[in-house]
């Protein structure tokens, strides 16, 4: 028997409301793409904008518009995603309108960004084939004939030199040590997708970030921390029942993400950012019984 969290339209609405409440208390904001998904499940535009607190960009001064731009490259494909907000207000989504729009270039070549939020104008994305080692990507908020750019240069690709994938990792190992082929500047984060079995032969799938420590240019994940995270995820997938059976084994697909920040036009709000991210993945066969 496999447990998996599936979010229906009504539950997604409730989740968005919770996210809004958390945002008001200083937590993470509601992503325009997530509201677009909920809209696709049956929300009207008016209801969706009640959650996103939509504002039209021409109604705001440039200094009040905060841009969030994300850039990745994998297998020769550059992916750009973009959304707008109002200053540091996490519960407001700004929608380009009138003479305002979002444009992008990759190494000077124009990249079309399309609305991927079901016509709500909450989130835009585009991709382009580009094999250069360090593409320079500029995403701009354009008002009439004037552009206000944000530019990032992606770091070179990096790869895993150890451990071999897949890795057989018993809980008793103490740590999983990861090493890359180059030093990583910027921000490094680790996460995993898990497919796990419990002692009663039930199963669940889940995802989580995971903390790590850096020791002599290696990245180390504690198996105790990993086991703790898997136990929390298992209980969450089992309606938080305190008698949830213990996790025995998991297939873990780890992702290591290296993020750098670029430079944004100072005409836009100071909370604007553009991020460039590289990622590598590897598989771990985790055994909590050994």
TrEMBL record:
Name of this protein: Lipoprotein
Organism: Undibacterium luofuense
Entry superkingdom: Bacteria
């Amino acid at each position: 028997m496999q447990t998996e969290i599936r979010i229906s339209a009504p539950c997604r609405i409730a989740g968005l409301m919770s996210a809004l409440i958390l945002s008001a208390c200083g937590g993470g904001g509601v992503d325009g793409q997530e509201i677009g998904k909920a809209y696709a499940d049956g929300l009207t535009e008016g209801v969706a904008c009640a959650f996103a607190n939509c504002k039209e960009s021409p109604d705001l001064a440039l200094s009040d518009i905060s841009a969030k731009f994300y850039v990745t490259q994998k297998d020769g494909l550059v992916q750009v995603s973009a959304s707008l907000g109002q200053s540091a207000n996490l519960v407001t989504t700004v929608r380009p309108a009138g003479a305002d729009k979002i444009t992008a270039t990759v190494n000077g070549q124009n990249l079309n960004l399309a609305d991927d939020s079901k016509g709500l104008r909450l989130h835009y994305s585009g991709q382009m084939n580009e094999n250069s080692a360090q593409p320079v990507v500029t995403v701009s908020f354009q008002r009439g004939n004037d552009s206000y750019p944000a530019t990032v240069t992606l770091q070179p690709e990096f790869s895993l030199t150890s451990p071999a994938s897949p890795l057989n990792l018993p809980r008793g190992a103490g740590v999983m040590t990861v090493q890359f082929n180059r030093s990583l500047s910027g921000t490094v984060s680790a996460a995993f997708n898990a497919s796990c079995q419990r002692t009663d032969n039930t199963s669940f799938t889940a995802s989580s970030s995971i903390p790590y420590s850096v020791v002599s240019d290696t990245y180390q994940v504690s198996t105790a921390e990993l086991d703790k995270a898997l136990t929390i995820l298992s209980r969450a997938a089992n309606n938080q029942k305190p008698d949830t059976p213990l996790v025995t084994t998991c297939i873990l697909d780890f992702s290591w993400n290296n993020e750098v920040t670029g430079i944004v036009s100072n005409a836009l709000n100071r909370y604007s950012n553009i991020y460039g991210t590289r990622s590598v993945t590897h598989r771990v066969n985790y055994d909590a019984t050994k």
